[in-house]
């Protein structure tokens, strides 16, 4: 897996749901971002982060969230 390609796909997927919470954006876009287990990512993420909206996150937070997703979401 190419980390940069996964990162870009993951961020792009979250921005398709930028008005939803991060929790729902991850759950709703697993098929787009390539996550086999979006629920595992939600379970591993910080609750405060999950309540925010993707459109309001700083870039560094996307990098942290993508690393968490790659570790827990079993990306294809």
Describe this protein's structure.
This protein is an all-alpha fold and 76 residues long. It is 64% helix and 0% strand. The model has no long low-confidence stretch (mean pLDDT 93).
State the shape. globular
What helical percentage do the residues reach? 55-70%
- The CATH class, by name, is Mainly Alpha
Structural class: mainly alpha
- What is the CATH architecture assignment? Orthogonal Bundle
Order of H and E elements: HHHHHH
What is the strand tally?
Answer: 0
CATH topology: Helicase, Ruva Protein, domain 3
Number of domains: 1
Work out the helix count: 6
Uncertain regions: pLDDT < 50 for 5+ in a row?
none
Quick gist of this model?
This protein is an all-alpha fold. It has helices at 3-15, 22-28, 30-33, 38-44, 47-50, 59-72.
Key words describing this protein structure:
76 residues; mainly alpha; single chain
Question: Any chance you could write out the topology, listing elements then pairs?
Answer:
Layout: H1 3-15, H2 22-28, H3 30-33, H4 38-44, H5 47-50, H6 59-72
Helix pairs in contact: 1-6, 2-4, 4-6
């Amino acid at each position: 897996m190419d980390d940069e390609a996964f990162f870009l796909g993951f961020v792009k997927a979250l921005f398709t749901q930028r008005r939803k919470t991060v929790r729902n954006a991850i759950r709703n876009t697993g098929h787009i971002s390539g996550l086999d287990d979006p629920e595992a990512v939600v379970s591993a993420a910080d609750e405060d982060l999950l309540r925010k909206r993707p459109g309001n996150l700083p870039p560094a937070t996307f990098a942290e969230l993508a690393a968490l997703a790659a570790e827990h979401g079993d990306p294809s």
